[in-house]
Amino acid sequence: MDQTVAGAERPAPLDASETLTLEVTGMTCGGCVRRAEGALAGLPGTVAARVNLATRKAEIDHDGSLTPAAAATRLAEAGYPASETTLVLHVEGATCGSCAARIEAALAAVPGVTSASFNLANGTARARVLTGAVTVAALIAAVEAAGYGASEALTGTSAAEQAEARQAAETAGLRRDTLISAALSLPVVILAMGAHLVPGFHHWIAGTIGMTTSNVLQCVLTTLVLAWPGARFFRLGLPTLRHLAPDMNALVVLGTSAAWIYSTVATFAPAVLPEGAAHVYFEAAAVIVTLILAGRWMEARARGRASAAIRRLAGLQVREALLVAPDGSTSAVPVSALQPGDLIALRPGDRLPVDGVVTEGVSDIDESMVTGEPIPATRRPGDAVIGGTVNGASALVMRATATGADTMLSRIMAAVDEAQGAKLPVQNLVDRVAQVFVPAVIAIAALTFALWLALGGGLGAAVVAAVSVLVVACPCAMGLAVPVSIMVGTGRASELGVLFRRGDALQRLREGQVVAFDKTGTLTLGKPRLTGFLALVEEDRTLARLAALESRSEHPLGRAVVAAAAERGLDLPEMEGVKAVVGEGLAGRSEGIALRIGNRGFVTAELPEALARQAEAWEATGATVLFAEADGAALAVLAVSDVIRDEAPGVIAALKAEGLRPAMITGDSQAAAAHVAGQLGIDLVRAEVRPTDKAEAVTALRGEGPVIFVGDGINDAPALAAADVGVAMGSGTDVAMEAADVVLIGGALQGVPTALTLSRRTMANIRQNLFWAFAYNVALIPVAAGVLAIWGGPMLSPMLASAAMAASSVLVVGNALRLRRVAHHQEA
After folding, report:
1. Strand 320-324 and strand 384-385: pairing?
2. Within the chain, how many helices (H) and strands (E) appear?
3. Distance between CA 509 and CA 530 in Å, rounded?
4. What is the pLDDT of the chain when averaged over all its residues?
5. pLDDT for the residue 540
6. Which CATH class is domain 496-523+645-760?
């Protein structure tokens, strides 16, 4: 197929100045290639377009005017959307909401970036880009041009280790700078404020070293504070002032510089100031730096606890595993060397290195660290096991089924990391406010200074009031209010077995009013069980014979009969001459007796009234009834049905108590659906819904309000995608989990109310943080400006302003950390 590389060998025209490369999806043949090329060739500025089916790459030579967005739009219109990927950066120097807005704007301005978000709480920027059109280097350059440092973020275990090392280094650096600043500031405070504690202190200073020498000492020490531990504010704040986009660091720079310059002039050139205005405020500048550093130190420690979920997950990963060789010997190998299919030996107490299936042994495995379920699960040959969990008291052998980034633990870590970096819709309001907040504060400070001078308050008082406004209004708390709550909330969710694959599901989940469940495998176990048995003779002996016959079948109904016999500990007799009639039943001989078991049409014997009545009663509940005969005479009737999960009634009751309306959507019969719904107290039922119509059923339920859909199977994927929030059982299919917004890792149904509780508590926490952040600024900016002084009240000193600002950030982070106490709904 020469079309597959259409145009691949043609040289680029001489007048093409640039080449744009995109990755194209949806192509299946040479015809697709021609259509994609034709669509691109018609774009203004395009000189030549080449599309390669084998590599899925499109190369467009153009004159420099073509944008990646225009090319992607044209490809999408042609039915071949450009592939997108997410690039992640670690950004340094961002301290407030206005920083976040500026970083996002810088990234979004890079051609080929479709969306960008920055998480102030963990310093991570995520850019959704057109694959091939944008490089990490281009994103780093954009962030650096905005005045911040940036580097490519790693993924997986290395990312967690990198983040932990970075967090530890940041906390240690802030601790060091805080202590240095405090040591240098303490003598300044004593020299300046000693008289407030010790009467006559200033007279003693004046009589010993002199007030001029005291001021010079304060100037030297304060200069050291600003030039040493306080240098970080100038290093980050001055570039933002040059770019006319000031941030929180700029406010600190302006406030401390104003106090230092005024005090320095008062010390060395007092004659240039109005008479009586030669006061020094070195202690204000020094203490502002000290208190803000202390606040950031405490904030960094708190943020470290907020991101503990990722570190705990990374700590579950194993470095080495015992590989079983074909001859049965074992050897320790790095986990990174394991491949699917490898046999791995597990000693008692070992942590499982990868996902797999048990091949030998029986043991209880503690899965609480991954699923949130506290009770160990018994695993036997054939049972699936999860990497990161802990083997109990017995040795096991397992076969690896997923390794590396494909393991559940790696996928959980990636999803938690992505969810923690997500941007909720509520953040948009904060961003818009943050973009204008700092410039507005500078304007208010300037107005405050001017009004104090105009009203005769004096130059010194005007400086103090303006500095107080600049310092008290630093919007740290505003920038942290949303992301830190998301970090803690999604992290706690992962510990409870609830995985938010998309961070914005946190907000949408809270808005749900209808919780619709799939029946089979979600409200029920999804495995048929023998739920009724009535025999005319010797019940155990009859069940043993029928189980022996069904043991020759792989049908789920037959396996339910065999499992029931095994639960009773029955020995199965020999069976001979077994014949299966597809869709009907089985026939065979045991101990000289001819046995038949199957549907009503397969059994020829006339049913006695007792068996007939019982069969009708079971069928009315939606159970599947099997009929059995021996030597042509009726022998027994058996009911096989799916069993409701033990936790289902409690979950439905919990949802109702929260004011939500439970619903059920199933393809089963009206009778089966009504029976299960009646037992659970669900009054909104959609039965006999074909798999292809489940999404439509979800859409129809929106008349009752936003819909949360909970399912587990491949046929549930469309409904999960169509719902306002899709919740997949972790025990279900990969397809369902990929379509869902939230995954219940252990497959436990009680994760649904737990997820709702986490959503509501997290959103309430965000509202509390935002209220505090905004109310704090609204209340304290006028106080700092000196409004209370008009009525004879006190002025807010710059020192108290800096303490209040630092306290606001710590309070916001501390409030978010309360989410770590959210418990599973059964424990609450």
Report:
1. unpaired
2. 29, 29
3. 37
4. 81
5. 92
6. alpha beta
What is the C-alpha to C-alpha distance for residues 614 and 531, in angstroms, rounded to an integer?
A: 12
Residue 208 identity: T
Domain spanning 84-153, CATH class: alpha beta
472, pLDDT greater than 50: yes
CA atoms of 346 and 400, how far apart (whole Å): 12
The angle that helices 282-306 and 483-495 make with each other, rounded to 10 degrees, is 30
Task: Give 410-424 as a 3 state SS string.
Answer: HHHHHHHHHHHCCCC
Position 7 confidence tier, pLDDT thresholds 50, 70, 90:
very low
The pLDDT tens digits of the residues spanning 596-625 come to 998 888 888 888 999 999 998 888 877 888
Catalytic member of 518, 712, 724, 741: 518
| pLDDT tens figures, 364-414 | 888 776 665 666 888 989 888 988 888 988 899 999 998 887 787 777 777
Measured between alpha carbons, how far is 101 from 431 in angstroms, rounded to an integer? 6
Give the number of other Cβ atoms within 10 Å of residue 544's Cβ.
17
End-to-end CA distance of the chain: 64
Q: Which helix (H) or strand (E) holds 462?
A: helix 459-472
- Residue 150 pairs with which residues in a beta bridge? 91
DSSP assignment letter at 457: -
Q: Which two tokens stand for residue 645?
A: 């999960």
**In this structure, which topology does domain 322-350+355-402 adopt according to CATH?**
2.70.150
Closest to 281 (Cα-Cα) out of 422, 461, 478, 126: 461
Edge-first strand listing for the sheet containing 633-644: 524-535, 633-644, 624-630, 593-598, 585-590, 576-581
**Strand-pair partners of 583:** none
Of the candidates 759, 756, 755, 758, the one whose C-alpha atom is nearest the C-alpha of residue 746 is 755
- Least confident range from 36-45, 62-71, 496-505, 580-589: namely 496-505
Residue reference for tokens 């259509």? 35
Write out 736-767 in H/E/C secondary structure.
HHHHCCEEECCCCCCHHHHHHHHHHHHHHHHH
Instruction: Kindly state the tokens that stand for 135.
Output: 């490089």
Domain ranges of the chain: 2-77, 84-153, 164-308+421-484+767-818, 322-350+355-402, 496-523+645-760, 526-644
| pLDDT tens figures, 497-531 | 888 877 678 888 888 899 999 887 788 887 788 98
Question: The domain at 2-77 falls in which architecture?
Answer: 2-Layer Sandwich (3.30)
Structural class in CATH, domain 526-644: alpha beta
Would you say the CATH fold of 84-153 matches that of 2-77?
Answer: yes
In whole angstroms, give the CA distance from residue 808 to residue 530. 61
Residue 770 per-residue DSSP state: H
Residues in the chain: 828
| Tokens representing residue 436 in the block | 């204008």
631 included as an active-site residue: no
593-598 and 377-379 as β-strands: parallel, antiparallel, unpaired? unpaired
Chain centre to alpha carbon of residue 305: 16
What DSSP string runs through 668-721? S-HHHHHHHHHHHT--EEE-S--GGGHHHHHHHHGGGSSEEEEE-SGGGHHHHH
Q: From 452, 445, 451, select the one nearest 246 (Cα to Cα).
A: 445
